[in-house]
Amino acid sequence: MRILVTGAAGQLGTDLVAACAAAGDEVFAFDRAGLDISDRAAVLGAVTSLRPDAVVNCAAWTAVDACEADPELALAMNGTAVRWLAEACHRSGSHLVHMSTDYVFDGEMDRPYHEWDEPGPQSIYGITKLIGEREALVLGPSATVVRSSWVGGVHGNNMVKTVMRLVGEHPELAFVADQMGCPTFTQDLAPLLRRIALDRLSGVVHATNQGAVTWFEFAREVVAALGKDPEMVRPILTGDLHPQRPAPRPANSVLDNAVLRLAGYPELRHHHEALLETVAALRA
To answer: φ, ψ for residue 205 (rounded to 5)?
Structure first.
């Protein structure tokens, strides 16, 4: 398979490029310096000249709080950039796999969100990511929107690395116990994205590791994986955070992977197994 990956230097893009290369694909890997997806001419030039079988868009502006302060830039990077990718894919006959997020939901539901639930983003980041989803889905069966949540791994910045750093700096840690999600690890998500691209799966799908936890519970898991006492982590409420964050966070970010399950894809493993693997790799 000929596959073009945007955001290839990010935590997910790095593992996706590695997974595709290991599978023998011809990979065209672009970081932002190599391809600014908000530049229509650059996107059209790259995709239509390379004519990949699939384009996987891992590029986005994911600084959730910063998006609140610059909605125009957030729209350019997370919204209209996907229009340019979709346009280019249409011209080249490429299948588009576009990464999205749990932030497209309001987080108020009392059960996991499935793919047919109505989005209701509460932040600029979530709004612009939903716009990006809609731009991708203009392609119809030639596009897949993959929503995931709480993504982490060996590369880039993520909560696992944050907790590991804080453990060495403070005798006590506090994490919110009223936000719940499914931590998802790039070493598991990346091969799944490759299969989705290869299968040219259509529509919206949710893809996460298994096992829903709060940030408080997840931080305790990371601390325990480091061989430290998880009792050093205490629970707080989102309203207790000081200062309060500019962008609201969904209280419920748990995504039901219904479409993948119904399509016969195997579930990604429990997040705890992937967490132990990640901590070991980061300590090596």
So the answer is: -135, 150
Evaluate if residue 242 carries a pLDDT over 90: no
Per residue in 5-41, pLDDT (tens digit) is 999 999 999 999 999 999 999 999 999 999 999 999 9
Rounded to 10°, the helix 81-92/124-137 angle is: 20
Separation CA 56–CA 4 (nearest Å): 6
> Is the full-model pTM beyond 0.90?
yes
Angle, nearest 10°, between helix axes 215-225 and 159-167?
60
Question: Count of alpha carbons within 13 Å of 264, Cβ hemisphere only?
Answer: 2
Task: Note the Cα 138 to chain centre separation in Å.
Answer: 21
DSSP 91-112: HHTPEEEEEEEGGGS-S--SS-
- Dig out the tokens for 89 from the structure: 């894919």
Residue 200 DSSP class: T
Domains of the chain: 2-156+184-210+254-268 (3.40.50.720)
Rounded CA-CA distance 89/87 in Å is: 5
- For 173-230, how does the pLDDT look when each residue is reduced to its tens digit (9 = 90+)? 999 999 999 999 999 999 999 999 999 999 999 999 999 999 999 999 999 999 999 9
Residues serving a catalytic function are 125
CA–CA gap between residue 150 and residue 184 (Å, rounded)? 6
Structure tokens at 55: 């384009």
CA distance linking residue 34 with residue 47, whole number of Å? 13
SS (H, E, C) 224-240: HHCCCCHHHEEEECHHH
Using pLDDT thresholds of 50, 70 and 90, give the confidence band for residue 165: very high
Q: Are 284 and 162 in contact (CB under 8 A)?
A: no
